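Students often ask why inverse folding is considered easier than folding. One informal answer: many sequences map to the same fold, so there is more than one right answer. In these notes we will look at a single instance of the problem. The structure comes first.
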């Protein structure tokens, strides 16, 4: 697969990932954290704010293609 096509597909995947992940994280927060103290909200959103990076890193690695030998 050409690198340009790989990067195009990867960019679309990352945008979709971020949108779906944000919707899911906020839906879970609204459903479960309504009566929680402020520090639970801070901890939850700090963790979920960093957690999306893991699948994005995999997509970026895939976008870069195989390592040159």
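Output (designed amino acids):
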């Amino acid at each position: 697969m050409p690198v340009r096509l790989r990067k195009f597909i990867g960019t679309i995947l990352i945008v979709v990932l971020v949108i779906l992940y944000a919707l899911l994280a906020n839906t879970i927060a609204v459903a479960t954290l309504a009566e929680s103290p402020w520090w639970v909200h801070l901890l939850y959103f700090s963790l979920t704010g960093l957690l999306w990076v893991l699948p994005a890193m995999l997509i970026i690695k895939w976008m870069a293609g195989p390592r040159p030998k």
